[in-house]
Design a protein that fits this description.
Elements: E1 23-30, H1 41-55, E2 58-67, H2 76-87, E3 94-97, H3 100-103, H4 108-119, E4 123-126, H5 136-169, E5 181-186, E6 189-194, H6 196-211, H7 215-224, H8 231-238, E7 246-248, E8 256-258, H9 267-279, E9 299-301, E10 308-313, E11 318-323, E12 331-333, H10 334-347, H11 357-401, H12 407-430, H13 438-449, H14 452-458, H15 461-471, E13 476-479, E14 484-486, H16 492-508
Helix pairs in contact: 6-9, 7-8, 11-12, 11-13, 11-16
Length: 541
């Protein structure tokens, strides 16, 4: 039997015949409103419709008709058009555009999309660049046109970025002014100045600096002043160096340039606010309805080390603290747990009746003065470094005037020196400044330390939260099985004063000798914060 028809089922290379219709869609676009003057959307649409009519195509839909950049293919109208031609019940064979660069300027990715469409029997047709895309030569011609469109796009970008960089080097911001600023013309020259919204945002910087309140509270205050601003946007504004006079831009290659615009806040304020944001990366919102349980999410379970929640017992209306871990069964009435917490505060409280406060005060002042000697020395070193860098800048300007160096070298080294000064000023801000009236400050601290339990009891909920986190930065744990409460860390200032009080008492009894020249604030041996725990008995072991 010579016939092989029966074996055709085993043959390879079968190709599915693609259905070809006269159905088409039209896609038009411009990158920006300004470009419409030369590449009108209306002009594109009319040309595409006339071509479809002459070719006998049925227009099944029009897409685009808006401003979409073609440097990437993440465009709403573009993707909407692709989805339509792939899923339409009526087979679409052609996508008609004014020119290939109206379809895409993304180069290889555009070629890939076009090839995927071609495998489905969908072809790209450019009105001003005729060719048969269904043939290999026509497809090759379109690929070349797409590559040239990408190349043209890159050349335009390079020229534009060169101009942007040059303007930034002069301190001129080329883009839209950030939130809180207006652009005005003064003697024909563009200036960026703070508007009314900016004045309120300026207040927000200082609220954050002086009170370290939450973004929710800042947003509420701004609303009271007539400015509705989403709290989620505040972090972005607080971290934008533009508000302290510096410009950050991709064209600068990681450098910062001093801008000519009006400064909203000094650099010192900007840095301090950002230090607060870094320190407060984790936190929680407090609500006034939690007034009966201020230790909520502060006290930890002594069994599983998870944070305990606060709640009211239904019917009895009694506040309680409870561990959320299933089967842990660690709970305690708020009244009893507050007494435990206050007993820990008693341990750190100065006793006025002992008559030893004057000696303790002298010791604190002596310790503070000695501990700041090294910091003062460090501050002086940084100040000298700032002066040295400033001399380099002055010398650089002098050499430019005397034509010893070129303008290119001047612009190369000046930003480096300015960045050095910014880094040194940041380090200077982190060094502790001396208290102007040390004795008055010590008196206030001692007054605070003499009333710790009473003060905590009288404070409102939010202030209680601040107070207890100040004294015990890592909270404390409660263990129902043993009845003990422990803490891993106590604020070193309060712990130091408490131990100092006990040492002074021993001096009075002749049990120890105290010298008023302790080199720096060191937690005395035996009262290590990482091992210290307090219970109802306030043990010190």
């Amino acid at each position: 039997m010579k016939s092989t028809v029966i074996f055709d089922q085993f043959a390879k290379g079968h190709s599915k015949a693609l259905i070809k219709t006269n159905n088409c869609v039209i896609y038009t676009r411009v990158s920006s409103k300004e470009q419409e003057q030369g590449y009108s959307l209306e002009t594109q649409r009319k040309a595409c419709e006339e071509y479809a009519k002459k070719s006998g195509h049925n227009v099944m839909g029009s897409f685009g008709g808006t401003y979409e950049s073609a440097k990437t293919d993440e465009r709403k109208e573009f993707n909407k058009m692709l989805s339509f031609v792939k899923k339409c019940r009526e087979k679409i064979t052609y996508i008609i555009v004014y020119s290939v660069d109206r379809f895409s300027r993304s180069g290889a990715n555009a070629i890939y999309i076009k090839d995927q469409l071609r495998h489905q029997g969908i072809y790209l047709v450019a009105v001003t660049q005729p060719g048969d895309a269904s043939t290999s030569s026509g497809d090759f011609q379109q690929n070349i046109q797409i590559i040239f469109s990408q190349y043209d796009n890159q050349l335009r970008r390079e020229k534009c970025m060169a101009g942007v960089k040059e303007a930034l080097e002069r301190g001129e911001w080329c883009h839209k002014a950030p939130y809180g600023y207006d652009e005005i013309k003064v003697n024909g020259k563009r200036q960026i100045v703070i508007n009314e919204k900016g004045r309120l945002l300026q207040k927000a910087f200082y609220w954050k600096l002086k009170e370290n309140i939450t973004h929710t509270e800042i947003s509420e205050r701004l609303k009271d002043h007539g400015l509705v601003l989403d709290e989620k946007r505040l972090s972005g504004y607080f971290r934008n160096p533009f508000y302290c006079g510096l410009m950050a831009h991709n064209a600068l290659g990681g450098r910062l340039i001093e801008g000519n615009h009006e400064i909203m806040v000094p650099k010192e304020v900007f840095l301090k606010v950002n230090d607060l944001l870094t320190a407060n990366t984790q936190g929680y919102n407090c609500h006034e309805e939690n007034e009966p349980v201020p230790l909520k999410r502060f006290v930890k379970c002594g069994h599983c080390n998870t944070l305990m929640r606060g709640y009211l017992v239904k019917g009895k209306n009694i506040p309680y603290y409870k561990c959320n871990t299933k089967g842990c069964c660690n709970n305690k009435s708020a009244k009893d747990l507050h007494l435990v917490f206050e007993s820990g505060l008693v341990y750190l409280t100065l006793q006025k009746a002992t008559g030893l406060l004057s000696l303790v005060k002298k010791q604190i002042i002596a310790s503070y003065n000695n501990s700041n000697k090294e910091k003062e020395s460090h501050r002086e070193v940084i100040k000298r470094q700032v002066l040295e860098v400033q001399k380099k800048i002055d010398r650089l300007e002098e050499r430019l005037i005397l034509e010893e160096i070129t303008l290119d070298l001047y612009h190369k080294y000046l930003p480096k020196y300015k960045l050095e000064i910014i880094d040194l000023e940041r380090a200077l801000l982190k060094t502790t400044k001396r208290v102007s009236n040390l004795e008055d400050g010590v008196n206030k601290v001692m007054e605070l330390c003499s009333n710790l339990p009473k003060m905590w009891d009288l404070l409102p909920y939010k202030d209680k939260q601040i107070f207890q986190n100040l004294i015990f930065p890592e909270g404390f744990s409660y263990n129902k099985k043993t009845g003990e409460s422990r803490t891993k860390k106590i604020n070193s200032v309060f712990l130091y004063i408490a131990q100092l009080m006990r040492d002074v008492a021993k001096i009075k009894m002749g049990e120890s000798k105290l010298i008023f020249d302790i080199p720096h604030l060191v937690v005395p041996v035996g009262i290590e914060p990482t091992t210290h725990g307090f219970s109802v008995r306030c043990s010190t072991d």
